Structure formats: C-alpha cells, structure tokens
Amino acid sequence: MENLKFIQKISSLKELDYQKLIKNDDNPFIQYSFLDSLENSESVSIKNGWQPNHLISFNKTLKGFMPLYIKNNSQGEFVFDHSWSYALSRAGREYYPKLLTAVPFTPCETKKFLQKEFSLDFIDKTKSFMDDKDIETWHILFPDKDLGNKLKENDFIERYGYKFIWQNKNYSCFDDYLNVFKSRQRKNIKSERKKIKDLGITFEIKDLDNITKEDWEIFYDFYKSTYHQRMQMPYLNKKFFEGVHKNKSILKPVIFFAVHKNKKIAGSLCFKSKKTLYGRHWGSSYNIDSLHFECCYYQGIEYCIKNKIDTFDPGVQGEHKIRRGFEPQKSSSYHYIHKEDLRGAILDFCNKEEKEINRYIEACNRYTPFKKEYKIK
User: Fold this and answer.
1) 327-357, pLDDT tens digit by residue?
2) 3-state helix vs strand vs coil in the chain, percent to 5
3) Are residues 255 and 355 in the same domain?
4) CATH (domain of 78)
C-alpha cells in the first residue's frame, strides 16, 4: 500500500527517483531541475506568496508527485480569480490561503499528477488537507487533457481561457509560410521585418550548443527592464537563470538576441521540447517599432521551421498574434470549491464565461489572415 505525505521542498527528493516518474516526457517545465531552480533561487518561496507543499506517494521508492503550493495571493498564475476573492471577502470569508497545483509563472500545459496509474489518492488527500486547514479552494492550472477529464468526474469545475498557437504545416522556409497569408497581411509582415533589417539589426541564436553565462547576464538585464517599465519587481531572479544554465542540457533554453552594431539590444527566451517551442520572457534596451514581433514571434517561427518543431506556444492571450499566424485555442483550468454556496456562484460564472470565450474564438477565426483555400487542421 502506498503512503502519502506533503513535502516543503522538491530537493528533499532524489532527482533520479523523480525523473523516473516522467520517463520520456521532455516538457521542460516539469523537470526536477526547473522546479528546483525556482525553489532554490527563492523565486518561489513563502515570502512572495508561494509556499511549496508538494504531495508525494511512496512505497519504499517514490511512486507519485503532484506540485502543490499554498498561495496567499494570485500573482504569477495567468488565470485570474480576483473577482472570486472579492466576492468571498464581501461575504465575510477568507479566500486566501488557497491551494494551487501549477508550474509557477508558466501558463503551459503539462502533466500535474505524476503517477504511473491515475488514482484518487492525491485528490482525497488534498481535500482532507483543505478540511484540516479550513481552505476554501484548490486550483489546477493547465493540466493535460486526460487529467482534466478525471478532475471533472471528481467535482472540479472546468474554466476555459484561450491562447494562440503557431502550427507548423511542414513549411520549408519562412517565405513558404508567408504564402498561406492574404496579400495584405503578407505585405504587413514583410514590412515589419524590413523595418528591423533596415535599422541594421541582426539576430544571434543561443541554445544548448553555444549559450554562455555572460548571455544570461545580458538577458537578465533585458528581462528586468520589462517589469521595471511597469513599476513591478520581476518574478524570477538571477539565481533562477543560473540554475537554468546549469541544467541547460535538460531544460533546453533558446535565447534570440537582437544585435545592433555588435551590441545586444534585446532578447527573447524560449524553452523547447521535441515537439514544441515555448516562448516565455523578453526584454529590450530600446523601444523600437516591430522589434517585439521580430524577436518574440518571427525568429521563433523560423527556428521551428528550420528545426522541424511542430508548434510554437508564445504564451497566453494577445490578439496581435492572430495577424502573425497564431491560431486561437481554448485552454483549461480546474477548480475545486469546498463549500456549496461559493461553488454554485463560481459554476454559474464559468458557464457564462465559457459562452463569451466561444464567441471570442469564433470572432478570432473570422479575423484570420489566411487565404480562403487555407484550411486550419
């Protein structure tokens, strides 16, 4: 019989035992080294509202793992529940702390229950924890579809969002890709790229083969600037990126640097698996028209075409991605609401929100930049 317990840091597990759970899944965000870098750097810690409380199952050896955090805020989640918090507060109850199963600061679909075979043990144990601590809600963000179906069977409410994904249709080069666009948008993309080229801006790609510690120093300055422009502190610190560099062979980072007169002026960070390129962070020293599109989208698309990567997931939301060939898709999160009155209100909210999401995606599809004969698969 397997035992279950909560642990306060992933480093209390042996990396080899953990990696056996994920086998051949090369998604960078569920790798031991990614989660450990978040915690070891204290980018994820009690002081910034992320208290690790992971749930594991074991029988002599590790049999299962579920990332779990006790949250005292809703920052860094990309699924917005502030209105739920306000509603419960007006009712005289506490929304926080809440439970969150997710990869911090990462709105990408990944496995969330790392088990050889699905069991209800993780769900039952976490619900008991909610009883003990008088916690009202538990949120599971961006799980794989198989888990999502099982969560709905166990009283979780599905909430829909949306994102925009680029799909590689076996393009041979970027010009081949441009051929699927209507002439007007094809012209707009060429114009955006020409602006950057005419300024003498070129690009350097740094990945597993050639990325250096100095590259991370430079990129981190760009990354910080994005947050400082919004008068915010960055979620991730320099020590986190040092952890990524140390484990680059597993996490497979890719940085696209914009270069002007032999000086790096902007950078976009991605991670990759065999099938997907994930756009995550970006920053720039200058506000240059169209540089964001080139650095964060067009360079990534070219990289996917060259390396035969199936999809490019640049992050959540952003209608401007549509005109550059990213197609709308639904995303899902799942929410267990402990008490019936709040559950009823949130279920009603999510049902109404789904209708709005459906209408929005339909509108996006009508706004497609592709030729009529181009069929989205």
Assistant:
1) 999 999 999 999 999 999 999 999 999 999 9
2) 40, 25, 35
3) no
4) 3.40.630.30
